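Our working data are protein records whose layout never changes between entries. An example says more than a description, so a record of this kind follows.
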Amino acid sequence: PACVGRFEWITDAGRSRFDELRELLASARRIAVVGLSDAPSRPSHRVARYLLAQGYEIWGVNPNHAGQMLMGRPCVSLLSEVPEPIDIVDVFRRSDAVLPVARQAVDARARCLWQQLGVATAGADALAIASGMLSVTDRCLLVEHDRLIGERRPG
């Protein structure tokens, strides 16, 4: 596992990091959206709605909305409250708030820590990689999914 950021596109073995992302996105089922907002104009809401439309199971993680349903999906306070294994932890938080989320992602044994566009915390990235997770920084999950996978609607 390694970081997929702005400049690291090829692995030490000569394999494209985009191949790793494509495989992750094709096999992932459950995505926790940390910082999910109930406001449709917010990027977290738009990305989550897109991911739902693509057939992923979404869990909102936001203490302000814990116990509520957002887009027909449950919202919890912490990653540890998601009752099933998490494939991707998609982070919509300020960079200075990502390290505790990365620790929760490691504890939850998530497969990937994904820091959205504009979010790149080196400590969280290093922790995720050291724990065997794929780490993505400063990239939009919606954009990368659309580019690498396209539509994957259920059924």
Q: What stands out?
A: The first helix runs from residue 17 to 27.
